[in-house]
# Entry
Amino acid sequence: MATQRQSSQIEDFDDEDNLFYEVHEVVVRKLGHVPIAKGDFHLLPVGVQRFIAKWVQICQPRGLYICDGSQAEATEIIHKLEDRGTLHKLTSKKYESNYICRTDPADVARVESKTWMCTENKYDTVPHVATGAQGILGRWLSPDDAKKSMKSFEGCMAGRMMYVIPFSMGPIGSPLSKIGVEITDSNYVLLSMRVMARVSNEVWKVLAEGDGEFVKCLHSMGCPRPSQRKIINHWPCNPEGVFIGHFPAKREIASFGSGYGGNSLLGKKCFALRIACNIAREEGWLAEHMLIMGLTNKKTGKETFVCAAFPSACGKTNMAMLTPSIPDYDVRCVGDDIAWLKFDKDGVLHAINPEAGFFGVCPGTNMKTNPNAMLTCMKNSIFTNVAETADGEFFWEGLEDEIENKSVSITNWLGQPWKIGDGGKAAHPNSRFCCPASQCPIIHPKWEDKKGVPISAFIFGGRRPQGVPLVFESFGWEHGVMVGACVKSEATAAAEFKGKQIMHDPMAMRPFLGYNFGKYLEHWLSLDKAPNKVPKIFHVNWFRVDDKGQFLWPGFGDNIRVLDWIVRRCEGEENMSIKSPIGHLPKKGSINLNGLGKLDWDQLFSLPKHYWEADNDESRHFLNQQVGEDLPKVIREQLKAQGQRIEEELFYYEGEKK
Ligand code: PGA
Ligand code: MN
# Structure
């Protein structure tokens, strides 16, 4: 029976008392002296056996648990975590199998400062930055230093179970998919991986029948028993010792000390972006931080697929499953965070979503901003660092109008009593829902299609309060790649940054770059060759504000109006735009504004000359400093030409207040 123990109390003892509950541990089967609690080690592919045996020896777990992805397995693990107090069930009748988890408050976000690419040659990872400049595009660690950091894995699983998770990124068996095996001592990670990736015994078969290649993923909370550290919220972790290392040459990832999503669900950012972009470069495809969505024009029945790359917490999840405010379109979601893209033999770019779930930011998500995400989260979901009402409902900022009983008492993410109107936050700003994509009401019927979906447009964007118009279309591939390289946005709660500074986040990939950004741009540029048909590239900004700080554009469901403009451009509709120094801007009247209240079109699309001069200078400075000699000449020239256009042609654009 699950106990109703509050998971929020600060514990200064560990959970050793629960060690006995490995009920069916069969001590007869062993790997070295380590008992195998579940699974048949000897049936695994040899490469996997070697990988496990090595880390069993180093990490010294008390048992080995080889996962099969079954429902029975999930049920068993959930019960264990409930007993221990790490998870507890949300009892509201609205839900089915929804659980809440509170982490150690020191382990709530990605730790970029301790995330590394480990390569022999430094410049495989980072560009040649200008002398004196501090590089921010990629983080390199020498193999020697990596080796030193890896020492922390010695004995790191003492007294803990080692779980082996076979998973596929992308539909099992698709030629675009890749296999991974994650070893972890966290059963929270196991449960979340089951949602975010395809965890299944089938994976062993794919490995056995294919080339046997898999990405080796090693994860530990870094908190062996007996714990040297006070364990908070039944969440053993090691914030001081965090290390997240990637070894692209060996296709390996090693993550220590944190259980937070981006640091621990290694299929996601670590594999599907940082390692995969290396594989993609070698094999001639792309692994990008992009949502994938299908837009069907209801009149013609024609569907257009687009990918959009925005930095973390700019609303990719909201856009991917947007509810249109105009009746012309059906929107369907293929993915909300990562796209793997490959040209087929006819040169048509196809995308798959390598993930199987959504790991979305909770605060701000509600039935108005993203009803489809809310509906996806009604069952089989895990909520991390959210608040809970006494009625057993989840709660976070943005749900004030939606909970049934407004005066209900609430327990905040720190486990303290809280009510609406109190100071502080109910939920952590980076609290997350983790839910199966298959439950999304508008999931695309082809979201698991092995060939992927054909992509017509790439859309870049960010949070840009000033200067940047709602939408523009680039002049072509090279200019579009330059636009992507210049993406900037306000800082996000998904990482450890504070405040609202505008940060460069080229291609929305800054935290996820797996190799030298100059080479990355070169790779992009190289794709525009026959028979490839490269997509059109656009830039959007939902976040421009007026001089009073009010948003100029309503956003959310109304973003369909901008997508409609983009789709029509992709279909070759003419006479919709005017050329500006930064790209093609929509002509007045070319965006459907029916039913939208007052809108200050002129401000929304104005291009203040002083702003764009400064922006061009700043971008050139940034790329010169950060990418230096590795910056492709084409990009340098594109920026220079844009600077000249701003200088010579930008006198007045509709609406700019003179
Ligand atoms: P994201 O981060 O917001 O960029 O998707 C996910 C994560 O931090 O794990
Ligand atoms: Mn993301």
In short: The CA atoms of residues 248 and 307 lie 26 Å apart. The pocket of manganese (II) ion (ligand 2) is lined by residues 289, 312, 337 (CB under 6 Å). Residues 1-27, 654-658 have pLDDT under 50 and may be disordered.
